[in-house]
Amino acid sequence: MTCSSPSTRTLIKAVLASAAVALAGLAQAQAVFKITAIPDESPTELARKAAPLVKYLEHKLGTKVEFTPVSDYAAAVEALANKQVDMAWYGGFTFVQASIRSGGKVVPLVQREEDEKFRSVFISADPAIRALADLKGKTVSFGSQSSTSGHLMPRSYLLQAQIDPDKDFKRVAYSGAHDATIAAVASGKVDAGALNISVWEKFVADKKVDTGKVKVIFTTPAYFDYNWTVHSDMPVAQREKLTKAFLDLNRNTPEGKEILDLQRATRFIPTQASNYKGIETAARSAGLIK
Fold first, then answer.
1. In whole angstroms, what separates CA 56 from the centre of its chain?
2. What is the distance between the alpha carbons of residues 75 and 30, in angstroms, rounded to a whole number?
3. Residue 1 pLDDT > 80, yes or no?
4. What top-level class would CATH report for the domain 28-114+225-276?
5. Which stretch of DSSP H or E encloses residue 73?
6. Do 63 and 28 meet the contact criterion of CB atoms below 8 Å apart?
7. CATH superfamily of this structure's domain 119-219
8. What is the pTM of this model?
9. Cα–Cα distance for residue pair 156/152, rounded to 1 Å
């Protein structure tokens, strides 16, 4: 039997320690924090909005961050429920769907200040359409079927006005995204459309829509909407670190201003699951959740 010398044992320990450090470093290098977002705008716009936020979160979290686009709203729900991503940007309705799908295992962290009192708008290029009642017998486009501001809440307020889209409209269309709804209305493909007020105001500010032709005919009352959500299996310390990163975004810094402008946010504030109970009630009343 051979017996290694003290110097040999010391060398072996040093090699093992170096290997452990190298493996830990490799694991850290390979660890990727993945985020996604409901595809409520074009893929290029979503990527543009995500880029500076990804860079900021990498600095705050000390790990690589990737934006992972998804094909539709349902995919965004499945991605977080199955922990294929670490954080998702949801509308209020998508959050409710993710909560149901995951058995209540998702946690909303922050929302924009604007999301406390969010609104939708109905738009039309038809001069004869001036109010919700004028939509009867017309072709009307929503966004995605799972959109809060592009479908659920507009539908809910229509029902409150005694207008049933499935019975009273000539045809109901789903454009898939807010910007696509604007395009459908502007081109005359549909008579009217409902969408997120934030996207509408951005299009108006950027002069991407002719407001002499396309006009807002109705603005909904306010409701809670978008949020950044994580899986409840995420350690509390990580959740707190993420929340702080968003709350620390400041318009007085170039980085903060760029991110907040792209996110169309004054600032981010904490949120909680109970804020979206009204959304769930509206979805059940509209028959969108059984």
1. 18
2. 24
3. no
4. alpha beta
5. helix 73-81
6. yes
7. Periplasmic binding protein-like II (3.40.190.10)
8. 0.83
9. 6
